[in-house]
Design a protein that fits this description.
The protein is of the alpha+beta class. Among the domains are: 179 residues, Immunoglobulin-like; 73 residues, no CATH class; 142 residues, no CATH class. The protein has ten helices and 28 strands. β24 and β25 form a beta hairpin. It starts with 10 loop residues before the first strand and ends with a strand.
């Protein structure tokens, strides 16, 4: 599937048909068709954290009472706590319709992917001399480091290099080999005057006379101008052009990063982006764009880590360019040193703001990618419900510490954004279903049995049916006009063996059941079938069920292999 087509809100269509229900229940179970776009909420804030000791070893044996969590400095009550471990889990094969319920099988199922790493290369800003070493470093990571439950994708900020999540090393290496510098607006030829984005920002936005003077002295020489007034005019005009070009490249980079964060939100497991970049600049007007990326990552539980692709940075003149004016060159070298620090700042901010890490000033780029891509052996999920939350969209800084033992280092989510309005019960339900759908955790509040059935129409086409049998007698009902009223949503989603979301079908059942129907005619349950047109292969099925009255949920995993 084309990756760019998937950078859109997930749409689920409701088209319900109860399969296998008793014909005598006709009129008591109905369906309606509607389209839903999932939204996010923060009624429950989840804070994933990793704890390491002084040697950097992950600590995985802590308890809920060992943690303290603050929101804007105010202590919070941790209402949800879990310890997660990496390494994947086996998804059992969903029994075929013909298989008796509860029948034992020796089939171990499939080992599901649960650690997703997007290697993002900033080919807009990377020079050829910086891109080659970081590309080779990524190649070493792909060839020697991947585990059975790891899936890697290759993206570039220009959008011209894309490889979706896979464990196929050959495909990944092929995508890496296609990486090349792809500036959007900048020219590879030295211009006159030679003004960088940072220098242009100094001239236009900060009225820096020293920077303007250096650019004017270059223009005076290389354009053979008659006086400094003419040179300054040309320098200012060039600075405006360079500034607009630089702003555009930064905007494209941030939009690309935000799109990849959206893509990562659909992956069922730990989600990490590793951005390899020399850094880039944001002017004042673009700080909100940077904040939007961080906000999107926080809401999607995606960490952004960054690797400074310049390696061990030294402020040396660019030998590919000739010196136009010695006095101007000395000023420009000073400006370049300031620019190098500012360009790294945004990489650090993206990492710190999303709970990731930033590696810089090292020539061990392979080690940097390996370190930033590694899944911790264990991490903790701390959850709390904000009290007296103001609906202002404001940023809330979070801090998690371990009270005892002392000396442990905690890294993780650093904050969240408050909503601007209260979410409705329907929005809450959508969000709860979304979170459950892109998880691997199983919930059994509602008794559900999953079966599958498939047939192949050709060597390349197959139809898969997922049958979910619900014990509706275990649900809670509201009495209305002598009937038992409830609504149940059943979402069946399909993922490929690499964890990529493929498609989903959702059924909305509206039940108005007579007592006799509920107690007798539906004793064997109610079966709902969802059909998928797919190609033969191995798939992971995720079924999520939620009822409106009891607000109970079920979530189950199953695997199917179509030869």
């Amino acid at each position: 599937m084309n990756t760019h087509c998937r950078f859109i809100p997930l749409l689920i269509f409701f088209s319900a048909t109860a399969w296998g229900q008793n014909p005598q229940t006709a009129g008591e179970v109905s369906s309606q068709e509607e389209q839903v776009t999932f939204q996010s909420r923060v009624n429950l804030v989840l804070v994933p954290v990793v704890v390491r000791d002084k040697t950097g070893k992950v600590v995985g044996n802590l308890r809920q009472q060992d943690f303290q969590l603050t929101d804007k400095g105010k202590p919070q009550i941790i209402s949800r706590f879990s310890v997660e471990t990496s390494g994947g889990r086996r998804i059992p094969k969903a029994p075929q319709v013909e298989t008796a319920s509860g029948e034992k099988t020796d089939d171990p199922g499939i080992l599901a992917a649960d650690h997703f790493v997007a290697l993002l290369f900033d080919d807009i800003h990377l020079s050829f001399s910086d891109l080659v070493p970081v590309r080779e470093a990524a190649g070493k990571y792909v060839s020697s480091t991947l585990k059975a439950t790891d899936r890697v994708a290759i993206f570039s900020t220009s959008g011209q290099t894309t490889q979706d999540f896979t464990d196929d090393r050959e495909l990944l290496q092929r995508a890496l080999s296609k990486l090349a510098p792809r500036p959007v607006t900048r020219s590879a030829v030295q211009e006159c005057p030679d003004i960088s984005f940072f220098m242009a920002d100094l001239i236009v936005n900060k009225n820096d006379q020293q920077a303007l003077g250096a650019a004017a002295r270059e223009a005076l020489v290389c354009m053979n101008l008659p006086d400094m007034k003419s040179a300054e005019s040309l320098a200012e005009s060039s600075a405006h052009r360079v500034l607009n070009a630089g702003e555009h490249e930064t905007r494209v980079t941030l939009l690309s990063l935000k799109d990849i964060v959206r893509r990562m939100a659909l992956m069922p497991g730990q989600r990490a982006i590793v951005l390899s970049s020399p850094g880039f600049l944001t002017v004042l007007d673009q700080r909100s764009d940077e904040g939007a990326v961080i906000d999107q990552a926080i809401r999607s539980s995606v960490t952004i880590s960054a690797l400074d692709a310049r390696g061990l940075y030294t402020a040396m003149p660019d030998i590919s360019k000739h010196t136009i004016n010695l006095a101007a060159e000395q000023v420009k070298q000073q400006i370049d040193r300031q620019a190098a620090s500012a360009e790294a700042d945004i990489l650090a901010e993206l990492a710190q703001g999303t709970g990731g890490r930033f590696v810089q000033n090292t020539n061990d780029l392979a080690g940097g990618i390996r370190e930033l891509s590694a899944a911790p052996e264990a991490f903790y999920i701390l959850g709390f419900s904000p009290q007296n939350l103001k609906l202002d969209g404001g940023y809330h800084a979070l801090k998690a510490i371990v009270k005892l033992p002392a000396g442990l280092n905690v890294t993780g989510r650093r904050g969240y954004y408050a909503p601007k309005h209260l979410s409705s019960a329907d929005e809450d339900a959508k969000e709860e279903i979304t979170q459950a759908l892109f998880s691997r955790d199983e919930v059994r509040e509602i008794p559900v049995e999953m079966h599958t059935q498939f047939f192949k129409s050709s060597d390349t086409e197959a139809r898969l049916s997922v049958i979910s049998r619900l014990d509706v007698r275990k649900l809670k009902y509201r009495k209305a006009d002598g009937r038992n009223v409830n609504e149940v949503k059943i979402v069946s989603a399909l993922f490929d063996r690499n964890g990529n979301y493929l498609q989903s079908v959702s059924k909305l059942l509206s039940m108005r059941l007579l007592d006799g129907t509920l107690e007798n005619k539906l004793a064997s349950g109610l079966s709902i079938r969802s059909d998928f047109k797919i190609s033969p292969g191995t798939y992971v099925i995720r079924v999520v069920v939620r009822d409106a009255e009891g607000q109970m949920m079920a979530a189950q995993n199953g695997a199917v292999e179509i030869p």
